[in-house]
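Narrative summary of target 7.
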Amino acid sequence: MRILKILFGLFISFNTFSQSLFVGNHVIEPYIGFPNVTKYVPMLALSQEPENVTSYVGLPPSGLRYTYMLTDDISFGVDVIYDRSRKDFVSTDTVFQNGGWQYLSYEGKRTQTRLRLQARMNFHIPISQPNADSYIGLGFGTNNRWIKDYKDGVLDRELKGSDAILIPFSMRVCFGYRYYFSYNLGIVGEVGIGGPLVSFGLSYKL
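Modeled conformation, tokenized:
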């Protein structure tokens, strides 16, 4: 009798698993992520970090994801990740002129733009909430960066392609969670590496 109760309990628990996405669904998700890593890890680019930074502004890694449900458990999609930053700084160059060393200061500016286009495969995890979806995502794609340095408002140096990036490709591993307030509209959050560490956005299901 005890065994029958245990088996019945397991049957009920397994049947409480539900999901909000099914084979054939399309999902579109604009999102914003945090933080802007180029502010804290400048050596991700092949460029000397400016000293005496006076101001920093930037758009953290943000983008747009598209997902198509291949089965009830596996989906495939595309993730476009974009971020931009600008640093204003004061720098001093040492030059030899007029028979001696001179120290010349100038106002500098550095802009960095990064764009990644990744193919994504998601593996969906059974969950007990009928309006929710949980998944593990793996992504692989391009890695592009553009860097421009200005001296007193004049473009002094421009880096792009292999001159501006350490690794020519990008990868992402993440865990995501969606919750739908209605059949079509919900919210999504992700934590991962190879893109925004944390991101939040809207999820629209078709």
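Confidence is low (pLDDT under 50) at residues 3-17.
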